[in-house]
Structure of Rhamnulokinase:
Amino acid sequence: QQRNPCVLAFDLGASSGRAFVGEIITETPRDASITGIGTGNSSVRKLQITEVHRFSNVPVQIGGHLHWDTPMLLREIKTGIRKAFQTGYHPESCAIDTWGVDFGLLDRNGELLGIPYHYRDRQTDGVVEEVSALVGVKRLFRESGLQFMPFNTLYQLYAMKKAGSPKLDLAETLLLTPDLLSYFLTDRRVCEFTMATTTGLFDPGRGVWNDALMEQLGIPSAIFPDPVPPGTVIGELTAEVCAELGVPPIRMIAVASHDTESAAAAVPADSPAFAYLVSGTWSLLGTQMAKPLLTPAVLERQFSNEGGVDGTYHLLKNIMGLWILQECKRKWEQLGEAYSFAELVQLAEQAEPLCTLIDPDDLRFMNPADMPEEIRTYCRETGQPVPDSPGAFARCILESLALRYSQVLEQAEELTGSRFTGLHMVGGGIQNELLCRLTAGAIGRPVWAGPVEASAIGNLLVQLRTGGWIKDSQEGLALVKTSFPLRIYEPEFEEHRAAWAAAYKRFEQLGRSMK
Ligand code: ADP
Ligand code: LRH
């Protein structure tokens, strides 16, 4: 029997990592009538994805700093490769996408210098203000295109410099997380374009590294490899890795290695001007653009321009996201009260609606020691009822996120002059049906939810293009549309609209970081 070509994607998020094999299958009309997909007599091509591995991604505090457990990530990726072959697949290639901004430094022998920092490490506290004063906010934005988030690579490197870290002096190469993990497997050093655009050191207007800014901040420009576009072949697994895993030397591809951009590349939109929300640990809300938008209004609203596939740019905003709920869940677990996400959603369903609201993007929620306590303090300070049960906390978080989505969606419309008829939601967060429903209510428009595993799918699509099995992004999106049905959430009735409008007014008054 002829085997379908297949490829292997690793999608590493801040909460978990997962490995999916993707293969293009052809359903005959007979199969199609069984599954209910497809009409007429023509056969249907679909992308079939199979999860072969999943693992938790838990960071580690070492002394005063928070780090990624990088050796664990590499070990789990190796396990994923082995499991793909053990399951009977023979992937033609594999690729890794991860969160943005973080990196490892290699010394002149090609060895890792230190343990990569986690973007929530506190070394960058106060650094945004310092760099802004040094460079000027207008230039900083014009030459990076990014929202001023304390964890952008630029600020991390500046913080290391300021702390007198010897690592920068010893570094020969800086590799962003997906490139670093690919390097461990192939011994090849690349810098993938979509990741480069998350650093703050890549000038999106000129499309090059910003050597002048690096020099001004004392960051060595020689450590940054030239960016390569998504779809570039990095190289093959090294002989050592193949021997260790007992697998043949498959190719590794640089995809849209930034998870947000891999997800955006898999949004099954019907028109080129669409709004999307990638919902996971973070919520990234934005829209696709042909080129970066570097206007004073974008600086004022604090949106980012991040590079995507096919040279596109994405105007988007980082919203604190389900991190807040994850951290409450973790705290309750420590206190001996364990709830699954599904249970928390169920409890939130029963809680009183639109009771307490928070500004999810208040920086106090970035990494507090005790998230529920931080929310309690916020409620006391803003004179609101303090949530008194996990359901009330979850409801407060989800409704506040939905209101923030509505606000940011309107800002995106204002900045781009577009009108979005609804919002595409993708990512693990769409398993939270209450969140999807609340979002539809808050924005007063439909939410089109799916696919859940958008980042892994976007990763697979770029690999399938590199392998020549699909020809362009249109063909890729057509596959997504036939393979992963959308779930539609319509906004609620008129009486709810008034309640949402009143809540939005209260939400806006919460102020602080409401730009
Ligand atoms: P990341 O890629 O950042 O690690 P994911 O895309 O995997 O994040 O999404 C993780 C989030 O998905 C969790 O924070 C949780 O809120 C949500 N989630 C996962 N499973 C469920 C579930 N069964 N029900 C509701 N929400 C869920
Ligand atoms: C989401 C994400 C986001 C970045 C953040 C660090 O996973 O990649 O786009 O800003 O992580």
Summary: The chain has a mean pLDDT of 95. The pocket of adenosine-5'-diphosphate (ligand 1) is lined by residues 13-16, 280-281, 322, 325-326, 341-342, 345, 427-429, 431-432 (CB under 6 Å).
